[in-house]
Specification:
This protein is an all-alpha fold and 145 residues long. The protein has one domain. Helix content is 82%, strand content 0%. Helix 4 packs across helix 5. It is globular, with a radius of gyration of 16 Å.
Length: 145
């Protein structure tokens, strides 16, 4: 399972330079590798690139990317209060687009952060729409719908 996770995530780190500078995507990457290692070592083994490995990847991905997005919003809110270096909005939007929009939405409500900035909200909902469109296109390509 660890090999499957590495093969699925590493191209993003290599091919998308902004993700290399996004410390919360790196946190997500580390969290994914840790969960894959723990699952494989202590719970059950999965054949690399099997259907089960891909389904487990999707579940772990959604959990980990939402944790990372929530953490990114919390860190950005703390930086905004203390006047420290802020997290670029493009990094937050990248986490949203990669599936972390639920964590981002909950964080906006929990931290009261970025929920009144109109330009940010337009981009947030655009990211959600684009993610839905990408999922639709993938499902259509795979003849699942």
């Amino acid at each position: 399972m660890l090999i499957t996770f590495l093969v699925l995530i590493c191209p993003f780190l290599i091919l998308v330079p902004p993700l290399q500078r996004n410390r919360f995507f790196i946190f997500y990457f580390a969290l994914m590798m840790l969960t894959a290692y723990i699952t494989e070592s202590y719970f059950f083994r999965v054949i690399a690139f099997s259907h089960k490995a891909f389904l487990i990847f999707i579940v772990y991905h959604l959990v980990c990317i939402n944790i990372a997005a929530f953490g990114a919003y919390g860190a950005d809110k703390k930086a905004a209060r203390t006047g420290e270096w802020r997290i670029p909005e493009s990094h937050l939007h990248a986490l949203e687009f990669l599936g972390g929009w639920i964590g981002a939405f909950v964080a906006q409500k929990f931290f009261h952060h970025k929920n009144k900035k109109r330009s940010y909200q337009i981009m947030f909902w655009l990211m959600l729409f684009l993610q839905g469109l990408a999922i639709y296109i993938i499902l259509k390509y795979l003849h699942l719908i």
